[in-house]
Amino acid sequence: MLLALLWEPTPTPSPSPTPTPAQPVVEVKIVTETVTIPFERIVREDPSMAEGTRVTSVKGKTGKKTTVFEIALTDGKQTGKRLIFEAVTSAPVAEQVVIGTGRSTGCDPNYAGACVPIAFDVDCLGGRGNGPAYVQGPVVVIGWDIYGLDGDDDGIGCE
To answer: What is the pTM of this model?
Structure first.
């Protein structure tokens, strides 16, 4: 019996658990992006406008473009990107600018043959009028006789 007490079975070691690798976390997100589309500026010259004048005939407006992407993330890091949808949601409007190139002569465009100054009142030089501006005729009325230089309505003033 003595032997039985001295001999004890050796316990078998239990295997240590092997760590299981963590599964990657995969996510899919839908992302919408909107970007601004700049407008174009169109400039044209107009000789009927005084030189140096500038008029914006149409105000420019930026447009918008919308894109929708599917983004794949693995453990929080982007691993893929796919375009799903893209459209111009608001078209840009081109700005239109007109620049005057005409030389100002200081002469009224209603008359030809002599320079009729642009003034509050113009009279024929040597006539009965009191000015403040005068023209030496004859002048041809090609528009409206705004200064009344053609007294006999024959189309020629200061004769």
So the answer is: 0.48
